[in-house]
Specification:
Layout lengths: L3 E10 L2 H25 L9 E7 L3 E4 L12 H7 L2 E4 L6 E4 L3 E7 L9 H17 L6 E3 L2 E6 L8 E11 L2 E9 L19 E2 L2 H5 L5 H16 L1 E5 L6
Parallel strand pairs: 1-2, 1-12, 3-4, 9-11
Antiparallel strand pairs: 2-6, 3-5, 6-10, 7-8, 8-9, 9-10
Helix pairs in contact: 3-5
Length: 242
Amino acid sequence: MQKQEVIFEDLGRMGYREAWDYQEMLMQKNLAIKSEQSRLSLAHPPNTKNYFLFVEHDPVYTLGKSGHMENILITEEEMNHRGIQFFKTNRGGDITFHGHEQIVGYPILDLEKFDTDIGKYMRNLEEVIIRTLRDYQLTGERSAGETGVWIDPGIKGRERKIAALGVRCSRWVTMHGFALNVNTDLSYFNDIIPCGIQQKEVTSIQKELGEKISLDSVKQKLKKNFEMVFDVDLVEKFVASN
């Protein structure tokens, strides 16, 4: 049986607003297709398209719709001085940081073509990251009652988060996704309470291994594991040059 195709695109380094707008555009295209199918009372599966985007953002703090401003520990003036942007977003979760040498993954998937279970979808995203960390001999785990991927979540005082998750879902079409710290400058997390969770650290692959890691190699492993976990084929999107 032929696997579903997911269009893959590496956006490179892109501003948070620009990437958000791009995601919204792809999501709205799928929602329009589903609305038209519903209007015509068509029984066959909608001709929606699935996407998986990689992006690396310039320094930015993003606050989820259930987040709290008090989890930001610096002023707007301090953020401006340090060149850090700030956005309130429509994803779930609280405050997090995106920056250089961090891989952000944005799947825009029609879950009606997979499984209409948002909890399972979140666990699958975590599984992609857990398998990728395993490729580097790191043991990523889930933490009870908390999203994301952790190192040593069961050892009090040693818990450290290596990947954050936050998604939006509308009519079973997803957007936003995960952020995996590779060689990320972790000092940016000192000025927030990451994900609203106090007294727990944030880490990166570089910090855990004690050496800088090729961002491209992590991307390749993430893509491979995404294909395996979601049982899909990633198809590269090539943009024609002028």
